[in-house]
Amino acid sequence: MSRRLRRKVAKKGKEKVVLPSYPEIENDDGGLGFENKGFANWTSLPDDTVIQLFSCLNYRDRSNLASTCRTWRLLGASPCLWNSLDLRAHKCDAAAAASLAPRGLHLQKLRFRGQETADAIIHLQARGLREISGDYCRKINDATLSVIAARHEQLESLQLGPDFCEKITSDAIKAIAVCCPKLNKLRLSGVKDVHGDAIDALGKHCRNLTDLGFMDCLKVEESALGNISSLYFLSVAGTTNLKWGLISHIWGKLPNLIGLDVSRTDITPNAVSRLFSTSHSLKVFCALNCSALEQDVTFFATHNNNSNINNKGKLLLAQFSDIFKGVASLFADTSKNKRDVFFEWRNGKKKEKNLDMVMTWLEWALSHTLLRIAESNPQGLDTFWLKQGAALLLTLMQSSQEDVQEKAATALATFVVIDDENASIDCGRAEAVMRDGGIRLLLNLARSWREGLQSEAAKAIANLSVNANVAKAVADEGGINILSSLARSMNRSVAEEAAGGLWNLSVGEEHKGAIAEAGGIKSLVDLIFKWSAGGDGVLERAAGALANLAADDKCSMEVALAGGVHALVMLARNCKFEGVQEQAARALANLAAHGDSNSNNAAVGQEVGALEALVQLTKSPHEGVRQEAAGALWNLSFDDRNREAIAAAGGVEALVALAQSCSNASPGLQERAAGALWGLSVSEANSIAIGREGGVAPLIALARSDAEDVHETAAGALWNLAFNPGNALRIVEEGGVPALVHLCASSVSKMARFMAALALAYMFDGRMDEFALIGTSSESTSKSVSLDGARRMALKHIEAFILTFSDPPSFSAAAASSAPAALAQVTESARIHEAGHLRCSGAEIGRFVAMLRNPSSILKSCAAFALLQFSIPGGRHAVHHAILLQSVGAARVLRGAAAAASAPIEAKIFARIVLRNLEYHQMEHSI
Questions:
Q1: SS3 per residue for 12-25
Q2: Rounded Cα gap, residues 654 and 30, in angstroms
Q3: pLDDT, tens digit, for every residue of 707-765?
Q4: Max Cα separation, the chain?
Q5: Distance, C-alpha 190 to centroid of its chain
Q6: N or C: less crowded end of the chain, CB within 10 Å?
Q7: Whole-angstrom Cα distance, residue 616 to residue 74?
């Protein structure tokens, strides 16, 4: 059963307020309107109530509901339910249209989208159609439109747009004129060339044609338009190559012309003045975004805010005029708030036919023009949007015309956007919408049962929510629940825009928990399974939202419980769209980033095909995909089993190739490529494989990067690689010593300097010598001389690095006293907080302990300094390191280093601090 049937009705004063998405219909007293409180006996509902419920459903849900029982099947076929049909959200081919044909006998109004549905319209056999409205019409050709016209002789209104009808010519317009003599409204966008004979045919055959629009056309025969004497309203907004000198004489003679829209054209001030002078019937003249008018100082001064209506009694609406004030001047009562003029007209009890016609047309003309202006986003309109443009859109969103509401919501979603690629919006415009009550209006539209309104409202909410203040307002107004509900829609467009809204809202940490509580995570995961075949837009948005949510520890567990791991791996393996691949990889990276607090890291690695898919994505031609895939592999490599599985899936070769190719890439990709190699190189087998595959040289190149984050990951990878003597020699031979020395001396990152110093210490603690001395005697001598120079350079900079943490007065005080406070002061000044996140193996800890016995006093100090960082209480892995130190008997070696007369004071003090740290951990463990 469709969830739209299950709405709760509550009393609010004398009005009923419809509240969305609750599991039963309540009566006025708050209880179920049936005897049995446990079950709602839907079959006992009166027929007219069932029909009313059916009327709030799209045709797909209506058909599903009608299939539940014979009674509802008969009620679902009621003619009153099938006088209007909106096919835009659904794929409707000839077969689908034929299946709807039995219900199309009474169809009067049809909305469709795209060529395939246009071709299928004739199979509906709805010969009584009065109104047809279509969009996404670029591929619709003359043949299709001519057949539609021929099969629907009763047609009174035909609208195609606002996107361009590029393949429609004057031939189709002539066919419409001949076949549809009752036509009173024709609006076409983007026709290349409208010939005079086509317009003459409209004037000859369509005697009731009162509303004509040729918008955004390349050429229209102006003189022929002057022959359609029945016209009340004419729009040529955005049309080029118009002869305004001729127009001002011919169109001024149209006897019934009330409204004229020339917005976004090059009309001149003289042409406006002539039309005002020659036309006796003209009441409203729309000329928004007409540069020639706005740049004419005299014209601007004459028609500025204080004078919307000139001495001929004609209303001019332009960017420099007060549009609300001008529209209000059309009414006899001008005492009310000008901003409420549209609201007062819609809700007025006394109706005037001619004024209603003008206002209805004006709503459409403004919504169309504002949408087009928002799409083109011309410069210099900030003042217009902030002063009245945003308010106009919000007013039009409350129109009784559904297409006006949709255009206004789309324009609202569009005019705030500055940069699509970087998701940048104009904060001033977004907050203007919020100040004028736009968030509540949009959420009300999103609650509508009309899916077209749901989609456009959700799109606007999504774009506006890029602004943190607007996002908070959306959440405060209940928008998260609404979007989570819309994400469950069977309409892909609605689900896609709702997922986009959740994606933008999930950027804020404060909204993630609310999205999870509203069931948003389950909705997003279900979307991936529902639209896995096709639907790139909805998949990208769903994966992007899950990626943001997975960055939160609690939400990441919710994602996994909802089946998110399987869904995201499925996207990474099967989807070929780069945006989806990037967001899926990012989501998997964030899921794997909580290794210490939940089991998602292991779960991702164990999902069939996950690691292989991510390895393949590192070879993508798109940088964003490579970056996120490398980031996911980096996080996954913190798990021991994943680390080996990544290598088995070809990860070493792929990541080395990635590092080799990203010297000119973004810092983000460089950081993740080096980070993934750092993670893999924790394993000695992987470390050897990385060196063998040529990974040393690109890591040295990345160590020379200007980016601090790249310094850290490259230094970390080289530190791990240097543990192996063969790799250490490769680093020397590839010129790595100067690069590491430079990092150690000048990087702004303490962590990069620290790990560079440790890499140099590994390289020159003596274990590399046997590799360096292999070869002929002459080669051995050369290598020995070369290594001696490199060793001196390395030790010099290691010493300089250690001394930056040495404060002579503090060290002297600590040496002269056994008081804990003295050592605590040295510890605090020497501590590198980020080093507490490093986790060393038993072999690494053993190597630093052995280094405490090294003849080099510099290496002794370096080893003691490193062990200090790894064992400081509060560090993420301090307890683990303390256990390893105890297992290798480090206490005895540390006491020896602390007491050695020949050892430098730094080595002695640091060794004493490590001993104190071990005592602390031992006491904590015993407690």
A1: ECCEEEEECCCCCC
A2: 63
A3: 999 999 999 999 999 999 999 999 999 999 999 999 999 999 999 999 999 999 999 99
A4: 113
A5: 30
A6: C
A7: 55
